[in-house]
Write a structure and sequence with these properties.
- With 100 residues, this protein is mainly α.
- It has one domain.
- 89% of the residues lie in helices and 0% in strands.
- The longest helix is centred in the middle third of the chain and has 37 residues.
Length: 100
């Protein structure tokens, strides 16, 4: 299983847990153990924390991938774009020389 698959499965599991939390809170509201406003507040708090954790995980993962790519010394999109610009410039200069 690739790193991407692992992360994807973890995120999907998190979404499943989020749905279970909503169902659990709805059940507590139906039983009268929580008011609707308490239930809504609880679900919102949990959702906010889940979203923050997801964002933090995404940032951390992005940093790990970036550092790994840097260590691999692979050219970036920007590097390739600069090389393409140089190639275009040189091709233009060669074409002008050939015209003479």
């Amino acid at each position: 299983m690739s790193l991407f698959d692992t992360i994807r499965n973890t995120m999907l599991a998190g979404f499943g847990v989020q749905e279970k939390v909503r169902e659990f809170v709805d059940e507590l509201v139906k039983k009268g153990e929580l008011s609707e406003s308490q239930g809504a507040k609880l679900v919102k708090e949990w959702s906010d924390k889940f979203e923050k954790n997801t964002t933090d995980i995404s940032k951390s993962l992005n940093e790990v991938v970036t550092k790994t790519l840097e260590k691999m010394n692979l050219p970036t999109k920007d590097d390739i774009q600069k090389l393409n610009e140089k190639i275009d410039s040189l091709a233009s200069r060669v074409a002008k020389v050939e015209e003479k």
